[in-house]
Amino acid sequence: MDRGPAHGPQRAATLALAAIGWLMQDTDRAERYLALTGLDPDALRAGLGDNQVLSSALDFLANHEPDLVRAAEALAVTPEELVAARKELAA
User: DSSP class of residue 41?
Assistant: First the structure.
């Protein structure tokens, strides 16, 4: 993954999109995410440019540390970077 600028809204959105991609790779995890957020696949697709939808994926990860750590490893970032991206999108 291109590291680009270390911070900022574009980096946060990129991390969130990557996190959503990672979430969707596992059926059980994807179903849990969709159920907890109230999104369906169509709403998720439609909301990929919406900071609220993007931050929902990072909220989901931040609230379940094992997934946060696994996602960070898969995306070659630190868990702290994912949490910082969440804060950036919420700002």
Answer: H
Amino acid at 52: Q
DSSP 79: H
17 or 6: which leads in pLDDT: 17
pLDDT reported for residue 5 = 47
Dist. CA 39–CA 21, nearest whole Å: 15
CB 32 within 8 A of CB 66: no
pTM of the model: 0.88
User: Are the C-beta atoms of residues 22 and 60 closer than 8 Å to each other?
Assistant: no
